[in-house]
Amino acid sequence: MSSGGPLRLAILISGRGSNMGAIASACAAGNIQARVDLVLSERPEAGGLETARAMGIPTGTVPWTGPAQRDLFEGALKAALAAARADVIVLAGFMRILSGEFVQAHAGRILNIHPSLLPHYRGLHTHRRVLEAGEPVHGASVHFVTAELDGGPVILQSRIAVRPRDTEATLSARVQRTEHIIYPRVIGWLAEGRLAWREERPWLDGKPLTAPLVEDFP
Ligand code: GRF
After folding, report:
1. Any ligand 1 atom below 6 A from CB of 16
2. Which residues contact 85 (CB under 8 A, 6 or more apart)?
3. 114 catalytic, yes or no?
């Protein structure tokens, strides 16, 4: 991590980038002691790249090479992240799976947000699956990334009640609003040194974090 000064973030996106925008706004407003040094995408058409540029944030694209040449893709990613001198890699709707080797090389320095109450509903289409299963609650999880997909230790979760009239669209919109609150918050904890990765696990306020923190939202 950087010694002194704001925490340097590189944010990886594949789409709209609303979480990226929320994090960048929190930085710009001085609500968290961090700065976004780079927004990267493997998709040149990702809408979030334009949002980042409009906010004056450097952007880049690292084209997806296909699974057979993943090492080339990850090599280019690593080079871009190193050039930006990123302390923390923030995955925000980034749709490529990073290899165990890549994750290991950045251990404790990669965060992700997943739209479910992990460990429930890993993977895709979480809102649809939650509705189909008739779950009473749903939410989002901010977690450290480990080699296990959507399996790294969860730091903070937002929880909402599923309403009888909820559709995939309404549920997704309500979960996303909470994502825009909890993701900057966790990054702020890292920037303040309240949250750290030591001995292969998260620590908060000097104690190992043994279970996720959960915040209820309306
Ligand atoms: C979010 O819902 C996040 O949980 C998931 O992908 C979505 C990204 O949305 N990982 P956006 O691009 O930040 O708007």
Report:
1. yes
2. 2, 8, 37
3. yes
Quick check: is 208 in a domain?
yes
Buried b (16+ CB within 10 A) or exposed e, 40-49: bbbbeebebb
Split into its structural domains, the chain has a count of 1
The model's confidence at residue 1, banded by pLDDT at 50, 70 and 90, is low
102-123 mean pLDDT: 97
Tell me what pLDDT residue 4 has.
75
Range of the domain at 79: 7-216
Task: Determine the atom of ligand 1 nearest the C-alpha atom of 17.
Answer: 12
CATH code, domain with 13: 3.40.50.170
Query: Does any domain span residue 19?
Result: yes
| Ligand 1, pocket-test mutation among 12, 14, 19, 23, most atoms within 8 A of CB | 19
The pLDDT of 140-155, averaged and rounded, is: 96
* pTM of this structure: 0.97
